């Protein structure tokens, strides 16, 4: 259940609420079947096929993963040949879990480093001034109130000749009804903060939790692209994908490893991805 507040009047303590929520859920994610860390240790690659195709060969490159959570995506890029990966997250327990996972895979901090920091402070927190690839994965941007500040921070960390790659859930899905995704039910252009009070976690809806209050924001596709373009990065592509990683709508089916609309229903984009390069 959520309530909505004007962006400027977002409740005091929203950042602390969000961090407490994520901190509490880390042990649930580490121990549960959703992330299946035992399986990951055996085969450390959970990247989606469209991500690996669009990013291309990362062999010998440095990669920074903003909002990395427990590091599975970060370490997957190392598995695919990145010379050095750095993950950043504001949750200290998540960073500790990522470091432990890296150690289990035999990666020392010179190959895979993890840093605790707010994403807006990333430029001061990460060990290198810039990276060949700055990566942000699915489900990250909604936790940030200021998308322009995020874009400026991320762009500042891209090395000359490098690029930023973003994969994110499509904001159009947040305007549709939860049952079928076929009717407009919410304002696509809402800018106000959404305050949630929900127990459990996407990885285990029935997990007993105490810190259930969180605050999120919706960013339109235009807001994200415009924010990145304003930094001087060159938008190489913007792709839209008809698949999702979770049953966003109640009528979803699983086909070819992804959650999708029924085959007889008109499709809409569920995920988007973009690449923006620095000269």
Helix content: 25-40%
CATH class: Alpha Beta
CATH-level-2 architecture: 3-Layer(aba) Sandwich
> What count of domains describes the coordinates?
1
Q: Compute the gyration radius: what is it?
A: 18 Å
Largest sheet: 7 strands, mixed
The SS-based structural class is alpha/beta
Give the CA-based shape.
globular
Instruction: Give the strand content.
Output: 15-25%
Q: H/E element string?
A: EHHHEHEHEHEHEEEHEEEE
CATH homologous superfamily (4th level) name: Vaccinia Virus protein VP39
CATH topology description: Rossmann fold
Q: Overall mean pLDDT score?
A: 95
The stretches of 5 or more residues where confidence is low (pLDDT under 50) are 1-8
Kindly report the spatial arrangement of strands forming the biggest sheet: 4-3-2-5-6-12-9
Question: What this model shows, in words?
Answer:
GO terms for molecular function: methyltransferase activity. This is Methyltransferase type 12. Pfam families: Methyltransf_12. InterPro entries: Methyltransf_12, SAM-dependent_MTases_sf. Keywords: Methyltransferase, Transferase. With 279 residues, the protein is α/β, with parallel strands linked by helices. The protein has one domain: Rossmann fold, CATH 3.40.50.150. 27% of the residues lie in helices and 24% in strands. It is built from eight helices and twelve strands. The chain has helices spanning 14-31, 37-42, 49-55, 72-79, 92-104, 122-125, 147-156, 221-230; strands spanning 2-5, 62-66, 84-89, 112-116, 131-136, 158-169, 193-197, 213-216, 234-241, 253-255, 258-260, 271-277. The strands form three sheets. The protein has a seven-stranded mixed sheet, sandwiched between helices. A three-stranded antiparallel sheet has the order 1-7-8. Helix 5 links the parallel strand 3 and strand 4. The protein is globular and about 50 Å long. Residues 1-8 have low confidence and may be disordered.
């Amino acid at each position: 259940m959520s309530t909505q507040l004007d962006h400027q009047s977002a409740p005091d303590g929203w950042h602390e609420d969000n961090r407490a929520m994520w901190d509490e859920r880390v042990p649930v994610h580490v121990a549960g079947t959703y992330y299946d860390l035992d399986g990951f240790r055996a085969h450390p690659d959970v990247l989606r096929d469209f991500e690996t195709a669009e990013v291309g060969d990362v062999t010998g490159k440095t990669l920074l993963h903003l909002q990395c959570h427990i590091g599975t995506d970060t370490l997957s890029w190392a598995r695919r040949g990145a010379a050095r990966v750095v993950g950043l997250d504001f949750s200290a327990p998540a960073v500790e879990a990522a470091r432990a996972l890296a150690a289990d895979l035999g990666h020392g901090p010179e190959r895979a480093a993890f840093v605790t920091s707010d994403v807006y402070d990333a430029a001061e927190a990460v060990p290198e001034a810039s990276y060949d690839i700055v990566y942000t994965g699915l489900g990250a941007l909604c936790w940030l109130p200021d998308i322009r500040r995020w874009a400026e921070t991320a762009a500042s960390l891209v090395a000359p000749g490098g690029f930023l790659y973003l994969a994110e859930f499509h904001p159009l899905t947040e305007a549709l009804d939860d049952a079928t995704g076929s009717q407009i039910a919410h304002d696509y252009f809402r800018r106000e903060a959404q305050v949630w009070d929900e127990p459990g976690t996407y990885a285990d809806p029935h997990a007993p939790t105490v810190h259930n209050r969180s605050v999120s924001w919706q960013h339109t596709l235009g807001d994200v692209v415009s924010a990145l373009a304003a930094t001087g990065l060159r938008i190489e592509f913007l792709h839209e994908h008809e698949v999702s990683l979770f049953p966003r709508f109640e009528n979803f089916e699983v086909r070819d490893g992804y959650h999708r609309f029924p085959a007889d229903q008109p499709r809409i984009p569920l995920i988007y991805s973009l690449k923006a390069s620095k000269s």
